[in-house]
Design a protein that fits this description.
The protein is an alpha+beta fold. The protein contains ten helices and 15 strands. The strands form three sheets. It has a seven-stranded mixed β-sheet, with helices on both faces. A six-stranded mixed β-sheet has the order 1-2-3-6-4-5. Strands 14-15 form a two-stranded antiparallel sheet. A hairpin with a 2-residue loop joins strand 12 and strand 13. Helix 2 packs parallel to helix 3 and helix 4 crosses helix 6.
Length: 339
């Protein structure tokens, strides 16, 4: 949804309860709750673009969301919607992958729902995750101050690049070798799209103020979301943004803006200016880069090659430039990649 519409809808919700300490809002990865003395994060996220490895995607993106509030992933439930004609073998493959991912992250399955329905044309998995706080506080973007530094961990474009390569290998054969395509496909596993293994090492750390998981709308929209959630502006160093070489090759071939491409696998980290050097020194082998600074003015400005302009925002992810959506029929909407 356009962010203005989503923001308007959120403001019609009933008042927050006392337990809800991080409420719904633009740029919020998860809700923060205090139940008695326990701090938890709760999130939900669907997998709608992918048709392969949807269980792996679902666990990863929901783990990322609770991790961004400084929480360890603990409990998962899911709603799996399957198209008519799905075979038992296909169901068992998704289920087996879900079980494997639960074991990998030591997550407890607590239930869910499965059904076959005419309203979908490919499997859709909607996951829900509950996380338990690390330390004694939830990470909240409302605590960001002017002068805080915006760091980026990992290169930009992992998720979108892997998804395109996995879903439309035949399309990319016009532009890339089989070896190059295979390399892009492997990005889902190496470096992968789940940030939890790094967040677990990063927290608790007094210098870290907030985390954010770039997803739909890419790194540009994620930066706007952090600004909106914090009530601050950001000066972004466009020359420092580290895109994957494969992502830039894809964007040149398929004519999309890499700033707006699905970007899970990277992580936005806000830290106090006085803690930046110490933080980076703790993780000398990690792919960190400083990409900006928070300001009082509520504007997100991109500085690149000595020129400044407003950073674009993508209400529609650039991956949708590669899909066509025919008119709705009685059976719903069919979505496929343009060949």
């Amino acid at each position: 949804l356009p962010h203005e519409l989503l923001d308007r809808l959120i403001h019609t919700l009933p008042p927050n309860s006392a337990e809800l300490i991080i409420p719904p809002g633009i740029g919020r990865d998860a809700a923060g709750l205090q139940i008695g003395n326990q701090l938890v994060a709760v999130t939900t996220d669907p997998i709608t673009f992918a048709t392969k490895n949807i269980a792996k995607y679902s666990i990863a993106v929901n783990v990322n969301d609770v991790a961004c509030l400084g929480c360890r992933p603990k409990w998962y439930s899911g709603v799996l919607l399957l198209p008519v004609g799905t075979t038992e073998e296909q169901v068992e493959a998704i289920w087996s992958e879900l079980v494997s991912e639960h074991k990998a992250y030591n997550i407890q399955a607590i239930g869910g729902h499965v059904e076959v329905t005419h309203t979908v044309n490919q499997p859709v998995l909607v996951g829900q995750m509950i996380g338990e706080v690390i330390g004694d506080r939830l990470l909240n973007p409302e605590n960001i101050k002017p002068g805080d530094q915006l760091l980026l961990w990992q290169k930009i474009g992992i998720e979108g690049t892997a998804l395109i390569a996995r879903e439309k290998e035949h399309l990319l054969q016009k532009y890339f070798t089989s070896k190059e395509i295979h390399s892009m496909q492997l990005l889902l596993d190496h470096p992968g799209i789940c940030v939890w293994p790094f967040v677990e090492k990063l927290l608790p750390n007094e210098g870290v103020v907030a985390l954010h998981d770039p997803t739909e709308g890419g790194i540009a929209t994620a930066i706007h979301e952090v600004a909106e959630a914090s009530g601050r502006g950001i000066h972004v160093n466009g020359d420092a943004l580290p895109f994957l070489p494969e992502t830039l090759l894809l964007s040149n071939a398929l004519k999309f803006n890499p700033l707006g491409l699905l970007a899970s696998g990277s992580l936005l980290i806000t830290c106090r200016a006085e803690n930046e050097k110490e933080l980076l020194a703790q993780f000398p082998e990690e792919p960190f880069v400083n990409i900006g600074e928070f300001t009082k003015e509520k504007r997100v400005i991109l500085y690149k090659h000595g020129v400044h302009d407003r950073l674009p925002r993508f209400d529609r992810d650039e991956i949708t430039r590669l899909i066509k959506i025919p008119a709705a029929s009685g059976r719903g909407i069919f979505i496929s990649f343009i060949d």
